[in-house]
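This follows on from our talk about sequence and fold. Please put the record directly below this note.
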Amino acid sequence: MKQLVNPNIFHELPNDMLTAINSSEQVKNAWENITPLARNEWICWTINVKQNKTRLEHIERMKQDLAKGKRRPCCWVGCIHRTDKKPGAWAQKVLIDKVKLN
């Protein structure tokens, strides 16, 4: 598999996601045909959860959605960890500042 995720800007692909992607040629091909930014969105959406159960659900949904041709997670504000792009006002207030207060 091509390693197209830049570790300086994006999340690294975790082993559990790599295993899931490699479990299906259709999913693997879909993964390789989306942009590095789209890959980063899937990674962040999957790893940015509190419970392992939710993470496993996200991995399964990622496989299903990629197989259907979807390029990014639905209803996801986007990765708040990117260093190349400032978060939007909503993400800053709700996702970042709220976490800092807790």
